[in-house]
Amino acid sequence: MAKYSRVSGSVGLITLQNPPVNALSAAVRQGIVDTVERALSDPKVKSVVICGQNGIFCGGADIKEFGSNMSGPPLVPMIHAIEAANKPVVAAIEGSALGGGLELALGCHYRIAHSKARLGLPEVTLGLLPAAGGTQRLPRLIGVPAALDLITTGRHVTAAEALQLGVVDQVTDHSTVDAAVKFAQSVAGKPLDARRISTYPCPRPSDLDALFEGVMEKVRQSARGAIAPVACVQAVRAAATQPYTQGMEREKELMATLFTSGQARALQYCFFAQRAVSRWSMPNGARWDTSKPRPVHKAAVIGLGTMGRGITVALAQTGLSVIAVETQEKQLMEAKQAVSGMLERGAKRRGVAPALDRISYSRDIQAVADVDLVIEAVFEDMGLKKKVFQQLASICRPGTFLCTNTSALDVDHLASQTHNPELVVGMHFFAPAHVMKLLEVVYGPRSSPQAVATAMQLGKKMGKISVAVGNCPGFVGNRMLKPYMEQAFFLLEEGATPELVDRALEEFGFPMGVFRMSDLSGLDVGWRVRKGDGLSEPGAPSGQPARIRQGRRYSPLGDLLCEQGRFGQKTGRGWYQYNKPGSRVARSDPWLHSFLEGYRARHGLVARRIDNQEVLERCLYALINEGFRILEDGIAAGPEDIDMIYVFGYGWPRHRGGPMFYAGMVGLGKVLERLEHYHQAHPDVPYLKPCSLLWRLVASGSPPLHKWREVIKKLHSQL
Ligand SMILES: CC(C)(COP(=O)(O)OP(=O)(O)OC[C@H]1O[C@@H](n2cnc3c(N)ncnc32)[C@H](O)[C@@H]1OP(=O)(O)O)[C@@H](O)C(=O)NCCC(=O)NCCSC(=O)C[C@@H](O)CCCCCCCCCCCCC(=O)O
Ligand SMILES: NC(=O)c1ccc[n+]([C@@H]2O[C@H](COP(=O)([O-])OP(=O)(O)OC[C@H]3O[C@@H](n4cnc5c(N)ncnc54)[C@H](O)[C@@H]3O)[C@@H](O)[C@H]2O)c1
């Protein structure tokens, strides 16, 4: 809807009304068409102001409408009619003007923004392009390079940057509507020809071809297979090379291809899933809307290694006071320097003062006595963590939340070391903790809803996508990673190379394949875990027995590399070779290839040809199968939780929507059939055996993802 009133005698004020973001639904578009017509036909009205209710101009087209039959007046002619009006129209921008919202403002003759407003064309992040004239008007207004930057990245700019770029005409710290009304009065009756952006010639840089070639190459590289950024460049090129009307035709044509694409569906699913995961629930019925978090002002971090340092930075940047505890003097000194450096660099980037004085360092754990919440990040050693939790239970004041950053250990077992297990949850950050967006909040059977709510709220404040998950070895992300990595190892045994496996996964859209990722994070990490699980045995015999552990197929390849001191990038050798320890450029390693040949010969394995499809099916379907088991076990409340964990924590390409969404796109029947096929070929690999939830979903006609919860509920009620 849009509300109409006449203010200050001669200004028609149109207010968009569609909470929470005034999205341009059919009703809002109809409202705009009607009220603009009314203002233009009223002789008392000399100029018009368009604003949005509740401090937000407009969040763009209504994304929820995209999946349905779109009725109501289309945006393009609506905006064109505003631009063609014979009375000045001023956009009063508060909060956000995004996507179609900014395109509407670009159709107005003037734009006035509040200093705190954010503007942008984020359609590319939804698998689309700005198709209400945005790709044609913006380059005409601010030039091709700046428009390409905004349109291909979808980044939001501040009002100050928008003013500098020339997107807005004025910025105010006071009431935007008042300023816009005053301004509208001042321009009433003035000629408008020079204010219609569609009539501007598009500035043509002299090196146009070189510019577009360069941008296209950069965009293709960073898009990792996403099609929308490429279409955005093509549309802007049309603005630079063709008259406006033809450019608009090109914009429409490119949009038509994107609009119905699987990638647009995936990206729009991610948009809503990202928001849905904050509405968490636990199997005992506790929920986000009935659980009250407690405020956290002061926190402590125990252990200042890789993770503890990043967590300390993230907490301080959020405005909390932090007590950082590290037992080793040398580590403490190094950590102080590293944390200060990270804070200073972050502050410089954001143009604020570094939060150095929010942190106090100590070697004594007694220093945490009066904090609201502790995050333990010592070595991944259950004995050590148990001791730390016992100490915390006796030192901290009653009511302090005790959290662990363990990657895979039993959170409930740690909780049982304290007097108040209900105050214990996992806060599983990802490295580097001050950068990575994902936080798994792990609840045990005794964690209180308040502890979960508090950790979720703290995560949100830290700018994380926080996902609440149940307690099991590896939680959600690392539990699913195990079968994925296991398949990659088996593929090497059967004839693949690290290069072949990585290429297939990188072409799929992962920033790094399994082996490059493993070299980056260190092969010794998994080795230590496998030793702890009694899997890795030095000097194991050759032949079949060496590849069976605990009754199932096992690949000792990773262990054998570690026995040679090949820990990955840090030692300059791993699945690849590097120029020197710490170097990041992976090169194919002939030693590794002859090692694999020797290994196969020793174990009586005959290498066969493996193609990309097999790599993808075996690695991804094994991972997806474990995702279904996680849903079946109630460890994740829904597929969206798993998908957001993989998109934000594990580099799953967002334009493929996350593993569970991807399974739905491929077809659950097909995933089941391929898992069955591979399980028959490898009966000693339990991860390839399709789980009962997948069978059940296929038997129920492969319902769309938003209906899976009903099937899971039924399955649980029958158990
Ligand atoms: C605006 C925000 C920055 C606000 O952030 P905040 O943190 O305050 O709030 P939330 O993000 O939590 O949001 C609150 C609530 O609102 C929902 N929501 C937000 N934005 C929208 C929206 N645009 N539409 C619908 N719903 C929205 C959000 O989901 C939350 O609710 P929930 O229940 O999920 O918790 C922030 O919200 C934000 O960034 N929003 C998105 C901004 C954006 O991306 N805008 C661009 C939208 S796309 C667009 O505008 C396209 C235009 O270019 C117009 C294109 C013309 C269309 C023509 C179609 C032609 C088709 C031709 C094809 C023909 C094919 C054929 O042949 O058939
Ligand atoms: N590194 C990762 O990528 C990653 C990611 C997610 C979670 N984790 C988990 O985070 C935790 C920490 O991992 P990390 O990689 O930062 O380890 P790390 O080896 O880099 O650091 C651990 C630090 O803890 C300190 N420490 C040991 N005992 C202590 C004690 N009693 N009191 C105070 N400090 C003590 C050590 O001196 C060391 O500085 C582990 O549980 C790990 O599984 C790690």
UniProtKB/TrEMBL annotation:
One Pfam short name: ECH_1
CDD domains attached to this UniProt entry: crotonase-like (cd06558)
GO molecular function: (3S)-3-hydroxyacyl-CoA dehydrogenase (NAD+) activity; delta(3)-delta(2)-enoyl-CoA isomerase activity; enoyl-CoA hydratase activity; NAD+ binding
Single biological process term from Gene Ontology: fatty acid beta-oxidation
Compartment annotation: Peroxisome
EC number of the protein: 1.1.1.35, 4.2.1.17, 5.3.3.8
Main location: other
PROSITE patterns to which the protein is assigned, alphabetical: 3HCDH (PS00067), ENOYL_COA_HYDRATASE (PS00166)
Associated pathway: Lipid metabolism; fatty acid beta-oxidation
Domain 3-hydroxyacyl-CoA dehydrogenase C-terminal: 474-578, 615-702
Reactions catalysed according to its record: a (3S)-3-hydroxyacyl-CoA + NAD(+) = a 3-oxoacyl-CoA + NADH + H(+); (3E,5Z)-tetradecadienoyl-CoA = (2E,5Z)-tetradecadienoyl-CoA; (3S)-hydroxyhexanoyl-CoA = (2E)-hexenoyl-CoA + H2O; (3E)-decenoyl-CoA = (2E)-decenoyl-CoA
Domain annotation 3-hydroxyacyl-CoA dehydrogenase NAD binding: ranges: 298-471
Membrane-spanning segments: none
GO cellular component: peroxisome
Cross-referenced InterPro entries: 3-OHacyl-CoA_DH_CS (IPR006180), 3-OHacyl-CoA_DH_NAD-bd (IPR006176), 3HC_DH_C (IPR006108), 6-PGluconate_DH-like_C_sf (IPR008927), ClpP/crotonase-like_dom_sf (IPR029045), Enoyl-CoA_hyd/isom_CS (IPR018376), Enoyl-CoA_hydra/iso (IPR001753), NAD(P)-bd_dom_sf (IPR036291)
Keyword field: Fatty acid metabolism, Isomerase, Lipid metabolism, Lyase, Multifunctional enzyme, NAD, Oxidoreductase, Peroxisome
The UniProt record lists the keyword Transferase: no
Subunit structure: Monomer.
Family in the record: Belongs to the enoyl-CoA hydratase/isomerase family.
PANTHER family, per database record: 3-HYDROXYACYL-COA DEHYROGENASE, PEROXISOMAL BIFUNCTIONAL ENZYME
Protein name: Peroxisomal bifunctional enzyme
Protein species of origin: Lates japonicus
